[in-house]
Recover the amino acids of this structure.
């Protein structure tokens, strides 16, 4: 793992995992990690491939409903339902991706958005399966991970494995080609890479891991609320990703933590907390394009640069 | 059967505009063939037909006996064809070495999608990258972000991306466009060094640049071939002088 992640990223991950359940309730900490998986997965598209998907709630919701329905209606164990939900999300992402990746820019955003709406209305109307507007309640955790601490540890394991797999993916040749496509799709095609195929791969990876996040989420509070498949939640995921920093692998996790903190803490004092979200978002887009992670990198860079410069001066004085 | 590049009565019409009309020429293996012409002569449209960005309205382009017109752009490298772009076209957020990796890896791995190993785990690819960077003279910048390169160096990086897969045919679209005099000389010097190892098709706007290095020249004028021949023949051709040189003098 040390080779896979840089030291600062590793510190951030470990700090988050250890500190979160003490700062917040363990279930909320588990929620943060779940949203973190979804945000990092979304960043495979946004930050690594340059595709802004406004339909990630679709996959989060599909994963959540799939896990929820399999356990409540068909008596699956969570340990079977979660991989099944992940697989189902991947298949959904493949089919939807076939249509979406043919377009880029604004059209891509609108198509993902349209699919999100479509699937939302399926969830909304198919009340016998999804519970419609009331959500799907009664999603029970298996007994060995039923108490909040063991469930948190389970979530940590899923979180860490998901991050490792996604990091291996972006470090792989395929991940590098995606970054090339992000920078210059025409040149990537001219060097012989089938841009559409690679975009589809990115779309499926993102959909699959967002679906995994959704599947875990179903067990966090034992309910699949309808708003997690709503397009507004797609916006929230994009928000987390950009706020944390789409230029960094780990950045979106920080964004997810900040988002949840706002929602959990500020919402207790002020009903209109999304306003703060809006203001913060505007500030990030206007002044800190690289998000929290980018800012931290900048500050760290300045500090080490200053130290390096001081050292150089010392050596100069010494000689 | 010729193994070089053949353009056989290539035409590209946009509505009533005949951007390229019935253009034919042959480039034998190892030759450097230049297409020149004033602005708007249809050079770039012809180039785009050869690189499969555009499908010719009629006629076809063949390379090594294969019909390549009508392919999709990403299929050309499989035939051993590489291209550079008129406006420097690199991957700006990758390092210099990673830029070259993109094409070198494609030549090494084919269309196989690889996710299990790290991108830099192939020593063969790394070797190709450094060889290529050495050749264009950018080896010392290998780990620098591509955007930090000077303008002329970025053009050389563009070349390196094209050269790394060791193509048989190199298509260069105005490689000196927008470059300073000294950078132009560096690029032309590089092209001279590549000559005879590759079959090269060069699209150029500046006539003086290409006279020295071309084996044959096709002059285009209003979408049609005005003349074809060796640099000496072209220089002596009165129609070319009138249409092209005369106007500039």
């Amino acid at each position: 793992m040390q080779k896979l992640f840089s030291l600062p990223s590793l510190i951030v991950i470990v700090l988050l995992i250890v500190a979160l359940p003490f700062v917040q309730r363990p279930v909320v900490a588990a929620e943060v990690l779940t949203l973190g998986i979804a945000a990092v997965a979304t960043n495979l598209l946004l930050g690594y491939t340059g595709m802004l998907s406004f339909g990630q709630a679709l996959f989060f919701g599909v994963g959540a409903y799939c896990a929820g329905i399999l356990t409540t209606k068909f008596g699956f164990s969570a340990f079977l339902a979660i991989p099944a939900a992940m697989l189902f999300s991947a298949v959904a992402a493949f089919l939807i991706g076939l249509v979406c990746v043919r377009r880029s820019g604004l059209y891509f955003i609108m198509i993902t958005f349209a699919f999100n709406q479509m699937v939302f209305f399926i969830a909304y109307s198919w009340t016998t399966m999804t519970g419609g507007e009331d959500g799907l309640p009664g999603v029970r955790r298996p007994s060995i991970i039923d108490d909040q601490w063991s469930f948190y540890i389970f979530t940590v394991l899923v979180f860490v494995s998901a991050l490792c797999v996604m990091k291996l993916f972006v470090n792989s040749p395929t991940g590098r080609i995606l970054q090339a496509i992000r920078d210059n799709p025409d040149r990537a095609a001219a060097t012989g890479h089938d841009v559409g195929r690679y975009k589809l791969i990115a779309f499926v990876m993102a959909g699959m891991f967002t679906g995994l996040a959704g599947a875990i989420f179903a067990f966090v509070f034992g309910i699949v609320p309808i708003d997690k498949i709503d397009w507004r939640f797609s916006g929230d995921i994009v928000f987390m990703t950009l706020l944390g920093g789409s230029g960094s692998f780990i950045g979106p996790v920080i964004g997810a933590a900040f988002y949840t903190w706002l929602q959990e803490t500020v919402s207790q004092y002020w009903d209109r907390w999304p306003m703060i979200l809006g203001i913060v978002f505007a500030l990030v887009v206007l002044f800190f394009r690289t998000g929290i992670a980018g800012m931290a990198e900048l500050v760290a860079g300045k500090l080490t640069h200053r130290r390096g410069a001081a050292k150089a001066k010392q050596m100069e004085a010494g000689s | 059967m010729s193994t070089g590049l053949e353009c056989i009565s290539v035409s590209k019409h946009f509505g009533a505009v005949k951007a390229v009309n019935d253009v034919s020429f042959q480039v034998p293996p190892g030759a450097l063939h230049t297409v020149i012409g004033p602005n708007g002569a249809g050079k770039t449209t012809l180039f785009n037909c050869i690189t499969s960005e555009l499908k010719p309205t009629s006629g076809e382009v063949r390379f090594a006996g294969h019909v390549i017109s009508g392919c999709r752009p990403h299929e050309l490298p499989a035939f051993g064809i590489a291209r550079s772009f008129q406006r420097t076209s690199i991957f700006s957020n990758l390092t210099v070495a990673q830029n070259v990796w993109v094409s070198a890896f494609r030549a090494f791995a084919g269309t196989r999608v690889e996710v299990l190993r790290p991108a830099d785990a192939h020593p063969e690819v790394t070797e190709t990258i450094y060889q290529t960077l050495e050749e264009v003279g950018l080896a010392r910048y290998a780990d620098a972000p591509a955007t930090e390169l000077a303008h002329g160096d970025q053009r050389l990086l563009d070349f390196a991306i094209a050269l790394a897969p060791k193509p048989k045919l190199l298509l260069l679209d105005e490689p000196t466009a927008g470059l300073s005099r000294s950078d132009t000389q560096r690029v032309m010097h590089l092209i001279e060094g590549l000559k005879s190892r590759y079959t090269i098709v060069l699209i150029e706007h500046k006539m003086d640049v290409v006279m020295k290095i071309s084996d044959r020249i096709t002059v285009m004028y209003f979408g049609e071939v005005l003349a074809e021949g060796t640099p000496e023949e072209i220089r002596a051709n009165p129609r070319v002088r009138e249409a092209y040189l005369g106007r500039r003098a």
Observations:
- The interface with chain B takes residues 168-169, 171-177, 179-180, 182-184, 186-195, 197-198, 201 of chain A (CB under 8 Å).
- The mean pLDDT of chain A is 90.
